[in-house]
Amino acid sequence: MATLLEAGVPVKRAFATLEGTTKSARLRAAVGRIRNQVEAGNHLAEAFELEKGLFPPLVTKMVDVGERTGSLGAMAQDLSEYYEWRSRLFRRTITALIWPGIMFVAALVVLGFLVYVFEELLGMELTWAKRLLKLVVGGTLSLIVVGFLARRFLVGRKVTDLVLIEFPGLGKLVRKFVVARFTWALHLMTRAAVSLPEAISRSAEATNNRAFCDRVLPAADEVAQGTTLTESLAATDFFDLQFLNIIEVGEGSGSLEENLSRLSQSYSEDAQFAAELLAKILGWAIYGAVACFLIYLIFMVFKKVYLGPLQGVL
User: What does residue 242 show for φ and ψ, rounded to 5 degrees?
Assistant: First the structure.
């Protein structure tokens, strides 16, 4: 859409083109309804608003600003870059973390097979090993199921988001991701000349983290009452001193938009580095756990094959 609008293609024609090229049936139907609304003379932002649940509030607001200021193409381009950045950061993080996950599953399969073989072929009793494997497998599956079900409800999402933010080690990574999303969205909103209180609210919602929203949304009310952005964000006790100093300099020098852009890039790089570091730590932790388990099995084999007969002779 951004490419079409930036090239000067009329909105109606742009949506007609999108409707014919969109692969997703759900999205194609939504594009068709939006095109019908525009052809009927309604505002594009209103048409987006009607598609509740499909387009985030950030998108609707940016479209509204673009329509009112005659910069719809530029707004669409900004949104395109923002969501491409989010998608790219997500893919890189998943790529970094997927290998430890594969290692974890493979380790459980191999160790489970070894326990089975040792018990069947050598007649060894590995009760402790079986209990440990069952505990790990059961605990992992329980966490996945409980987390999935909890995130389907608002209260559950708040709880799981809070746990992720506060969890030792992992919380630091999640915080960097959340702050990176927040600052990038806030950069877009301030660039579009959206009022700062509304920009804070929309940007907080764009993080998709309910725990973060609960802590940051009051800052929007404080800014509306005349408090500076720096003071309002400092009161949330979520942002580090470096972040607040850069925001304060941006406010004082009139370069808030540029400083937000720098912060978003910095925190996205930090988040990527933290994800790669966490992946390495998890990988070595899995190696260590497997090594300890194998040492235990070797000891049990030695006890069964060598010490057992020796004790019988004595």
Answer: -60, -45
Overall pTM > 0.85: no
The C-alpha atoms of residue 150 and residue 157 are separated, in whole angstroms, by 6
- For position 172, what pLDDT does the model report? 84
Q: Please give the Cα distance from 67 to 33 (Å, whole number).
A: 18
Could you tell me the two tokens for 23?
A: 């692969």
Segments of the chain with pLDDT less than 70: 1-2, 4-7, 122-124, 126, 151, 153-156, 304-314
Domains and CATH numbers, the chain: 2-80 (1.20.81), 99-314 (no CATH)
Angle at 134 between CA 130 and CA 136, to 5 degrees: 120
| 17-76 tens-digit pLDDT | 877 777 777 878 887 888 888 888 878 878 888 877 777 777 777 777 777 777 777 777
Treating both helix axes as pointing N-terminal to C-terminal, what angle do 210-224 and 196-206 enclose, rounded to 10 degrees? Answer: 180
Tokens of 151: 């995130």
